[in-house]
Amino acid sequence: MSFNDILSVAMLGGMLAFIFVGFPIAFTLLFIALVFGSIGIGVNITFSLAYLQIFGTMKDDILPAVPLFIFMGYMTEQAGLMNRLFGSMRQIMAPLSGSLFLAVLLTATIFAMATGIVGAAVTVLGIMAGPMMIKAGYDAKLSAGAIAAGGTLGILIPPSVMLVVMGPTLGVPVNQLYGAAMAPGFMLAVCYAIYCVARSYINPSVGPILPTEERVGSAIEITREFVVGVLPLCLLIAATLGSILSGLATPTEGRVLRSGGGNNLGTRLPQA
Predict the structure, then answer these.
(1) pTM to 2 decimals?
(2) Alpha-carbon torsion 174, 179, 181, 182, what sign?
(3) Cβ–Cβ < 8 Å for 86, 110
(4) Is the CB of residue 152 less than 8 Å from the CB of residue 188?
(5) Residue 159 has pLDDT above 80, yes or no
(6) Which residue range forms the structural domain that includes residue 158?
């Protein structure tokens, strides 16, 4: 084996060792790259490349959308919109087997379209829907799987933080990534829902029907909660995702709800 082959194997082994120990992945990759890059191509070249890459990335005006995505997700979660949305979905789906599975997945899908992040949906649904599903007699493993799967839809369904970061890195316009990821994201949500409902109908003990005493009798109250929970999110989705996909705004400008970014959406690449 050549020196480069040995260095590559050692780099891979070191990365896996640090990850399994529990060291944060971001710092692990940074440390491994600097150390083995310095050994392989020299200290000066390694640090020069790191300098150019860091400042080239910082100049990209697409990436400021990432903290704005996170801030928007935090604000919508603190406003209680997810609680209202889940409560209304729970009452609407109550007569069906696996109604809480459907409520969780529909809430996560709509919330993903409004925020584009993962952490808020998983945390809120886990705290809010988890105990409710266990109390209703739902299967614990399938309940945890539905919450985790629904929460991760935010990484694929636009507007997605992952796609905002991926676009400039790959040199692909972000609006094209959004358009390409929309159908697979919704298909994944539908597959999750079909699986949970099918399991509930095959084995009713996995996802029993919501008891009558836990249902809200007034259709007016259910409709009001649904409108209050869904309407603000729909307006948010139309203002942000609509402006981005139509080319009226870049992801950064769409995230702060203003247009005028032109039609060169996501085409500005990091400058080395």
Answers:
(1) 0.64
(2) positive
(3) no
(4) no
(5) no
(6) 65-255
